[in-house]
Design brief:
- By secondary structure, this protein is an alpha/beta fold.
- The chain has one domain: Flavodoxin domain (Rossmann fold, 3-Layer(aba) Sandwich), CATH 3.40.50.360.
- The protein contains five helices and seven strands.
- Helix 1 crosses helix 5.
- The two termini are 17 Å apart.
Length: 187
Amino acid sequence: MRQPHIVAIGGTTREDSSTGRLLAAALAMAQARGARTTLITGKAIEFPHYDPYSPAGPQDDPRIAHYLAALRDADAVIVGSPGYHGTLSGLVKTALDYIEQLRGDDRVYLDGLPVGLIATAAGWQAAVSTLQALRTIVHALRGWPTPMGLAVNTMQGDPQAACGDAMAVMIDQIFAFVERRPAPARD
């Protein structure tokens, strides 16, 4: 099996956000298991609102072009979002909206990819509802959310310590799925 490429997207524009740290920790676990990883977070996904009818396309913004190229090459994805008012942030939602640009690809959207999910919030209600919203969006994008998703209450100590075992399960599930599916055709 070729080295799997796992792409993590999300976080906030804050340099040391809990969500960004958890995405990096998940990728570190995957890297330790032999994956090639790409983290796209913070300012790297601070895209303009998605407008499918705009004359300026994603190819005009190198950040969006890099993002879409990484997703096209991905064998798995991890999406992380803070919970803002009970759902995902506008930053993460806009990044997910740009996946629409993959509609004409051989692999449409995230079709058939395992997708790990991380939702952080200053309370359980927002963390859990954000995780559910992410699952719904990933289903709409034809991805396969891992059974283990992380809802992390950042008010209860170190977020990474709080979800280490669950994160390992999520990474195991991503690898199990990637190892069972046929490798996609690559140019």
